[in-house]
Amino acid sequence: MVLKYYYDLMSQPARAVYLFLKATGIQFQDAPVALRKGEHLTPEYKKINPFQRVPVIDDDGFLLTESVAILRYLIEKHKVDDHWYPRDLKQRARIDEYIEWQHANTRFYGAMYFQTRVIIPRATGQPVNEGKAERFRGDLDTVLDHIENVFLKDTKFIRSNDDISIADLLAVCELWQPIAGGYDFRKNRPILRAYMERVRERMQPHFDSTFKFIYKVYEMNSGIQSKL
Asked: Which residues form the GST N-terminal domain (predicted)?
């Protein structure tokens, strides 16, 4: 039975898993879930994921949630190229180091900035809480400093000069969220700009098609940058 993948490409973790599936050639059946329409909140979807989030995989009746768990499961089952999640103990530990760190850092502050700037105002009709957005942007700047000075120190990819890993997919998918929300930090951060372009090129021809909707959101909000 073909793997069934529940996702919405507006979700950062769902984009990361989607890119991985495409890049590795793992066959899967599309099962899109439109978050903007509330399809994840239906009783039917709650049976698939009690947390009512994306992504989810259904592997012949085996349901698994959480992007990192999904990626590790797919890597072990399909024996993909080693660079995605190295079997060398120390190299794998370095990848895990970023993956564990990013939940409360890259993911949290990037998502909160995007929600404050885009999601909440559109959902409520209220103006942007500028003070809150500015605080999240300041915290995000600290996170970006850490990525540049720790995780990308003297390397082309997260903790590696060899090739891309799942850490890079997770990182770039999260980093695009505040950019789409109007904070294009790449303009003043050449290290991150070069890194993100390196990942984009490495993941073609799948990257641009995966990010098509995010690019549109970015174009809509790009005018915010001039006000910051």
From this structure: 1-82
Of the options 1.20.1050.10, 2.30.40.10, 1.20.140.160, 3.40.50.11060, the CATH number for the domain spanning 89-222: 1.20.1050.10
Q: What digits encode the pLDDT tens for the residues 75-122?
A: 999 989 999 999 999 999 999 999 999 999 999 999 999 999 999 999
Does the domain at 4-80 match CATH 3.40.605.10? Answer given as no
Which residues contact residue 49 at a Cβ distance below 8 angstroms, ignoring those fewer than 6 apart? 6, 40, 56, 63, 65
Residue span(s) of the chain under CATH 3.40.30.10 come to 4-80
